[in-house]
Write a structure and sequence with these properties.
By secondary structure, the chain is an alpha+beta fold. It folds into 2 domains: 4-209, Deoxyuridine triphosphatase (dUTPase) (Deoxyuridine 5'-Triphosphate Nucleotidohydrolase, Chain A), CATH 2.70.40.10; 220-274, no CATH class. It has 5 helices and 16 strands. The strands form 5 sheets. Strands 6-5-4-3-13 form a 5-stranded antiparallel sheet, covered by helices on one side. It has a 4-stranded antiparallel sheet with strand order 2-14-9-11, with no helix packed on it. A 3-stranded antiparallel sheet has the order 7-12-10, with no helix packed on it. The chain is elongated, with a radius of gyration of 24 Å. 20% of the residues are buried.
Length: 275
């Protein structure tokens, strides 16, 4: 399956490209050596914000429909300097116009307040604020187009155990025909804030086929075969164990078996191609 990449149309070419990443820095060594956990972490691709190395923004929810975004730069590499903030005040009850107030922390130039609002829109989707209460939508640096029959699922970074973690709403979009920008909707509590940097992913995407899934009960023979396979696997797993430099014992049998199956499938495909 091949997905096509398109840059954020509001800020093309800025931000790290999506990538697979199996490691999560806050997980202990035991978790990182678990092959099924690593495979889960590497599912799909991590998506990063549309930021340069010397840029950063913070988005927070103050409660009562008030949100505030702060944009900072670090031109010298020594100190972060605040350039502007944009305060978004939603109308009571969700009805009426949203107020946007810009505060500048640099010498003001003509039209800079409108420019600040435009810059903020590169990073978040102001129209989504407050749906539901506390929600803020952060934009990714790259967007995706999938082959026919494939959807894109947008979620938070999975297997990220660092606290506190704001919940992220999961969406599934038919990106084979619908032009959808990568967006990740966090739901903050009053007083909570998210810091967004260029090298920290803002979400994760997975590509899934739209083919419907049906269920049936397994037969007695299939259940018996499954038990035999399970017993054989754990017998082999117990024979192949190794230790890390820290003395942790684990078995690489699952990883080896997966690699052998992958190589066998590749060899079979090559043979069919030659025929």
């Amino acid at each position: 399956m091949e997905a096509i990449l398109f840059p954020n149309p509001r800020r093309p070419g800025i931000g790290l490209r999506p990538k697979k990443e199996a490691n999560r820095p806050m997980l202990p060594q035991q978790a990182r050596l678990c092959p099924v956990l690593e495979a889960g972490s590497a599912l799909g691709a991590l998506v990063y914000p549309s930021l340069n190395k010397n840029e950063q923004f913070l988005i927070g929810y103050e409660g009562e429909g008030l949100y505030q975004l702060a944009y900072l730069v670090n031109p010298t590499g020594n100190k972060w300097e605040q350039v502007f903030t944009v305060a978004y005040q939603l109308a009571p009850g969700g009805f009426g116009h949203r107020k946007e107030e810009v505060n500048l922390y640099v010498p003001e130039t003509p039209g800079f307040k409108d420019t600040a609002k435009s810059i903020a829109r590169m990073f978040i989707a102001p129209d989504d604020l407050g749906t539901p209460a506390g929600a803020v939508t952060i934009r990714g640096a790259w967007n995706f187009q999938t082959p026919a029959g494939w959807d894109t699922v947008y979620s938070g970074v999975i297997n990220n155990t660092e606290r506190p973690i704001a919940p992220v709403l999961v969406t599934r979009v038919e990106t084979d025909w619908y032009v959808h920008d990568s967006e990740f909707r966090y739901v903050l509590t009053p007083g909570e804030m998210i810091t967004v940097s260029y090298n920290l992913p803002v979400g994760q995407v997975f590509f899934v086929p739209r083919e419907p899934v049906t269920f049936r009960d397994g037969t007695e023979q299939e259940a018996a075969d499954r038990l035999v396979k399970s017993k054989k696997f754990y017998e082999e797993k117990s024979k192949h164990k190794t230790k890390t430099s820290y003395g942790l014992e684990y078995s690489p049998h699952y990883t080896r078996s997966r690699r052998e199956l992958s190589l066998n499938a590749s060899d079979k495909e090559d043979q069919e191609t030659q025929q």
